[in-house]
Design a protein that fits this description.
By secondary structure, this protein is an alpha/beta fold. The chain contains eight helices and 13 strands. The longest helix has 18 residues.
């Protein structure tokens, strides 16, 4: 299962939504969080993500481990691969989507991530959501969502330039999956649905489809 949101990772406003998301697991949650997208940022920033994640999942009463992985080399350590094999939920927080893609793509870690998608949940927010598309604003994505560019922070005024720029550059080749705060786009095998407090949008050429909590999305909209 893929579950991605536009913003709000580990904040109080998404707490009840994450509780519902975790409920989709078939067994007791074993959560790993990665701040790898921020791997080129300061130690203080990395500590911020670690502490936020630890507090969040502690509040939920969930078995959780934050992985200190700044880059491709860190992600592919044998200890991290072992942790991946024993988990059923991974979460990638924000930062640089390009750095996150470069750290994951075509590695042993990426193979384990694909295995985990088949048995659990691969979740991401902001940069952690953007890498799941076939393409990103700059460069390729991991292609978990074919024909798609993921746009996070949708509707947030500071980030409005992102969606406007992509609309101009895209020229109708890719579908734009636009994600608002505290709301997950969930792809579970052939079923697609929305979970959260705001909305999810699919934009393609002159079409604009909007979905809210509980809505199911016809997969043909992203083909």
């Amino acid at each position: 299962m893929i579950a991605i949101t536009g913003s709000g990772e580990f904040l109080p406003s998404i707490l009840d939504v994450d509780k519902r998301l975790i409920g989709y697991l078939d067994s007791a949650p074993k959560v790993l969080t990665f701040s790898t997208a921020a791997g080129n940022e300061s130690d203080d920033r990395l500590s911020y993500w670690r502490n936020l994640a630890q507090d969040h999942f502690s509040t939920l009463g969930i078995d959780h481990k934050h992985i200190e992985a700044k880059n491709r080399e860190d992600l592919n350590k044998s200890s991290v691969i072992d942790d991946m094999k024993n988990s059923n939920f991974v979460y990638f927080s924000g930062g640089s989507p390009t750095h996150l893609y470069d750290s994951i793509n075509n590695t042993k870690f990426s193979e384990e991530l694909k295995n985990l998608e088949n048995r659990g949940i691969v979740a991401g927010c902001s940069a952690g959501a953007m890498v799941m598309g076939e393409k990103m604003i700059k460069g390729k994505g991991l292609n978990y969502l074919k024909n798609t560019i993921v746009i996070p922070h949708y509707g947030e005024s500071f980030y409005s330039w992102i969606s406007n720029t992509v609309k101009l550059l895209n020229r109708g080749k890719y579908k734009l999956l636009c994600l608002e705060k505290d709301t997950y786009f969930i792809k579970d095998k052939k079923e697609i649905r929305v979970l959260g407090k705001q909305q999810v949008h699919i934009i393609y050429k002159k079409e604009h489809h909007t979905f809210s909590d509980g809505d199911k999305i016809n997969p043909s909209l992203l083909i």
